[in-house]
Amino acid sequence: MSAKRGSEGAAQTVSPLHWFRLVAVYLLIPLILLICGGDPGWWQAWLYSVLIVTVGLGGRILAEQRHPGLTAERQNIENIQNAKAWDKVLAPLMAVSISYPVVIVAGLDHRYSWSSEFPLWLNAVGFILICLGYAFASWALAENRFFYSVVIIRTDRGHAVCDTGPYRIVRHPGYAGNIFALFGIVLALGSVWTLIPVAVASIISIFRTALEDRTLQEELPGYRDYARRVRYRLFPGVY
Prior knowledge:
Elements: H1 16-37, H2 43-66, H3 70-74, H4 77-81, H5 87-97, H6 100-112, H7 120-143, H8 173-188, H9 195-219, H10 223-229
Helix pairs in contact: 1-2, 1-6, 2-7, 5-9, 7-8, 8-9
């Protein structure tokens, strides 16, 4: 969601349960990867695990420091219940598609050697793409006071357009960063077959971006003007 810092008085208190859920999600991804890979010496998997846990949790901590209560708001059951009907399907579908199917296929590919071994320089390029993608997405989260996990307009809480940070480049930098990282995973983990879940996740993300952007233009004051200034949704010069 595109919005700027609102009233801190509306912020919810973050409980240990909120952080426990986040930690569990970020630890489950590398755990699944390593189990499916079945190789304790698979250094690419270990490096990816360190990256996703460090950048993922680090980005959440930074966002919470800048916008107290954002972590709780992203897990707020009221927001989830009042989300757009189509996003009650797309939000969880996207959240799952950009993580678990990708690491399951990559792990099984490594275990059964479905793909030929990638050269080291391609692995390195992949890790660079992952770092850049996750950093860009984390920057968006830290910049946006109303970076909800679902599509919902909360003008009652000061919801307004965010046009700073990565939002000066594209209108949905969170999605853009994650898509960028997905293709980095293909190279970093050396799995051609991972292109299948990556393509599916990318299509879901692009479809959700289009619906969200239309909702913001129709319901969020000032967003149409912002869309005229920042022309592209995800990729400058492309889309």
